[in-house]
User: Fold PTS EIIB type-3 domain-containing protein from Amedibacillus hominis.
Amino acid sequence: MNVLLVCSGGVSASIFMKKLKQMAEEKKIKFQLKACSLSSVTNTDILLLSPQVAYAKRQLQVYVEDEAHLIQINNFDYASLNTNNVLNEIMNIYTKDMGCK
Assistant:
C-alpha cells in the first residue's frame, strides 16, 4: 500500500511523517510513505492531506477520482503528532479494500 502525505513542504510534515512511520513499525504495519507538495501529487493508494493543504481537497478528489482514498488530517492530530488516529484511518481503508472486517 502506498501512502502520500501532501503538504506545503514544511518541517512539520517531515516530523509528522517520521512519527507516523515509527508508529507503523511499532504496530508491525507495512506501507510505503512519502511526502510531496500539492503540485507534485502522483498516483497512490491513499492521500493524506496536511491541514495546510486542506483547501485543495475538492481539487484532489477530482484529480484522483476513484483511484485513491483521501484522508484529511485533523488539525489537532497533526499539531499534536497524534499519528495513532491517522494510522487507524489508513488501516480502516486498507481492510475495506481487502474485503476484511
In short: The chain is about 45% helix and 20% strand. Helices lie at 11-26, 57-64, 75-79, 83-97.
